Amino acid sequence: MVSIPRYHQLREIIRESVRSGDLKPGELIPSERELSERYGVSRMTARQSIVELTNEGLLYRRQGKGTFVAWPKIAQQLTALTGFTEDIRARGQRPGARLIEMGMVPVDGVAALRLQVPTGQRVVRLYRARLADDEPLALERSLISFFGCEKLLEADLVGTSLYGLLETRFGLPPIEADQELEAGLATEEHAGLLEIAIGSPVLLLRRTTYTARRQPIEYAESVYRGDKYAFHTRLLRPST
Ligand code: 16G
Questions:
Q1: Which CATH number fits domain 74-232: 3.40.1440.10, 3.40.1410.10, 3.80.30.20, 3.20.20.140?
Q2: Residues with CB under 6 A from ligand 1
Q3: Fewest Cβ atoms nearer than 10 Å: which of 8, 185, 213, 222?
Q4: CA–CA gap between residue 129 and residue 226 (Å, rounded)
C-alpha cells in the first residue's frame, strides 16, 4: 500500500474544512503548534501543509498576524467580451478605478501593429488600477485609437466605464476582441499598486478590441492578481 505523506492528509483536512464552511473566508486558522498537537503531526509537517495551501491561494499569510482563509477567486468567463465595470457589477460589487496616467502618446511596436496605425501616430494612453469595493484587482494600460480619440481625455475615466463611453458617447461599441493570457510575477510597480508582495503570481493579459468591421480600437496590457482570478473557458470538441 502506498502511504500518503502526513502533510498531504493535514492539507486535505484543512481543505475540507474550508470547503464545508467550518473555516470561513477571512478567518484565522489554528497555529502550526495547535495543528501539530490536534492532528499528531510534527511542526514541520504542519508548516509544510500551510505553505502548500498558501501557494495554492486557499490561505494567505499576514506578517505577524497569522494565516487566514482566502476569499474564493473571481471566476471570470473567457467567452464574452465584457469590460471590468460590467464584470464587477455582475458580481454584486462596486467597480472603481484609480487613474495612474492619461494622455496622448506616439504609438510604436506591437501596439502600432495591433491597432493597425503607423508608428508615431498619437493615441490615447490610459493607465488605471481597477478596484472592486475599493480593493485593487488589476492594472490596465490601454492604448485607444479612433478618429477624434483625444476627446476621451475630457471624460471622467475614474468614475465611468471606458467601454460604456465608447458605446454611448462615441458610437463605437466594442464588438470583439483577441486576447492572450500568460503567467507572470509582480514587479515592484505592480506590487505597490496592487498591494501585493513583489514576485506574487499575476496573470498578464493582452487584448486587442475591435469595433464594427473589425476596426481595432483598443490595445490593452493588463496585470491581474493571481490570487484573485480563475479564468474559465468552455471548449467544444470539433466535429469531425
Ligand atoms: C477589461 C479589459 C480592458 C478594458 C476594460 C474596460 C481585460 C483583460 N481587459 O478589463 O481592456 O479596457 O475592461 O473596462 O479584460 P471599463 O469599461 O470598466 O472601463
A1: 3.40.1410.10
A2: 83-85, 140, 142, 161-164, 205, 207, 218, 220, 222
A3: 213
A4: 15
